[in-house]
Amino acid sequence: MKILYDDNMPFAEQCFSLLGDAMPFSAGDINLEVLGSADALMVRSTTKVTAELLAQAPELQLVATATAGFDHFDLAALQAAQVPYYVSAGCNAIAVAEYVLSGIFAYAEKRQLNLADLRKLRIGVVGAGNVGSALESKLRALLFDYCLCDPPLAESSDTREFVDLDTVLGCDIICLHVPLIEDGKHPTRHLLGANQIQQLNANQLVINACRGGVIDESAFLTQAEIRKMPVLILDAWENEPAINRAMLPHCLFATPHIAGHTLEGKARGTFMSYGALCNHMGRDEEISMNQVLPSLPVVDWRSEGKCDESLIGAAIFSLYDIRQDDRIFRQAMAQSSDVGRTFTQLRKNYAQRREFAAQTIVLNEYSADDPIRQQLQGLGFDTLCTE
Ligand SMILES: NC(=O)c1ccc[n+]([C@@H]2O[C@H](COP(=O)([O-])OP(=O)(O)OC[C@H]3O[C@@H](n4cnc5c(N)ncnc54)[C@H](O)[C@@H]3O)[C@@H](O)[C@H]2O)c1
Ligand SMILES: O=C(O)[C@H](O)[C@H](O)COP(=O)(O)O
Description:
By secondary structure, the protein is of the alpha/beta class. It has helices at residues 12-16, 32-36, 51-55, 75-80, 93-110, 115-120, 130-141, 151-154, 165-169, 194-198, 217-224, 263-281, 289-292, 310-319, 322-335, 339-348, 371-379, and strands at 2-6, 21-25, 40-43, 62-65, 85-87, 122-126, 145-149, 173-176, 205-208, 231-234, 251-254, 299-300, 360-364, 382-386. The chain folds into three domains: 2-91 and 262-292, NAD(P)-binding Rossmann-like Domain (Rossmann fold, 3-Layer(aba) Sandwich); 93-254, NAD(P)-binding Rossmann-like Domain (Rossmann fold); 299-385, 2-Layer Sandwich (Ribosomal Protein S8, Chain: A, domain 1). It is built from 17 helices and 14 strands. The termini are far apart. The chain binds nicotinamide-adenine-dinucleotide and 4-phospho-D-erythronate.
């Protein structure tokens, strides 16, 4: 079994070498000779799986993506070539939810809002799948006011309460978590198009950590010429990697499509793809993610005294601080003579980031039943109470 894997998949060598001859490739630079004899292709979203690519890979038995989105797959071409495919659905949902929370807390800091003020804001979550649900559970833990909009799920057996898009457009914070869908009953390309953007005002925050193309950037920029616009947090951009820098001044925080790039988020994608290939080959999985993930040193916050709400923001920023990624991104973009190359390099060389669940926080013994401790746990942190 010849297995070609993206060199940006952590632990891929350990996994795939158990199943055969495993060879890395860099996205955008696949060796066509190797592709010609590959039995399995393991990609991330930076490799477009098109009819042209498949024509050069006649031996393929499986294509897997170590990502949640799969708009880089030409499904009709895969079907025509009779190559089964696998998507690592939900692999990085927690990572994106944590990115969004860091964004909301950094927004609150800029606007000098405390946790009680944040709880007065209504948060609209568009797309209540893996990411939207991971976010929902953390918002609920923090006692935030939120609503969900997901017409396909509203029409399904999902019993949660859903609102329509117009209701979300009236929320203080709007979080977009839909796949990029071009057609059908519920398309999402330009879900925030000219008409929807017209309904937004300067007091709102819009977060796009799903796909560029869900917001119509031209329509946004056109309206920005005549009035004050909502503030943005953008991780996903139209025309990546060659993004439009004119959007940057409208962003409170801007990042190069790294919302899902925790070590766990990427590793889960690798291990899910490995599981899919094991399944395809009728083999048992011999290695699991928990065996290989390094642990983080425990942090001791007993000297912080009583649990108070400031611990929540501090805990979030200690694991992921969107402000730092924003600084790096803006600086690189300001100096860049090749936006696409800079965007790609920033993603490829992104610093290691961990999920909240990797962090154990030691608190004072008397914090055992404290609501703040419960909220930290609801966010995913591991907490210990001791003298
Ligand atoms: N920035 C990142 O790093 C990053 C990471 C993970 C996922 N993503 C993107 O986010 C998307 C969502 O991820 P997910 O794991 O939650 O996917 P998912 O498939 O689990 O959930 C998507 C949800 O969107 C809903 N939906 C579809 N059309 C809709 C519409 N018109 N209006 C409202 N809801 C609609 C679906 O019913 C589904 O419940 C992915 O497809 C991917 O493109 C980005
Ligand atoms: O769809 C996804 O899972 C995310 O957008 C993912 O983080 C993309 O990361 P990439 O494959 O481009 O490294």
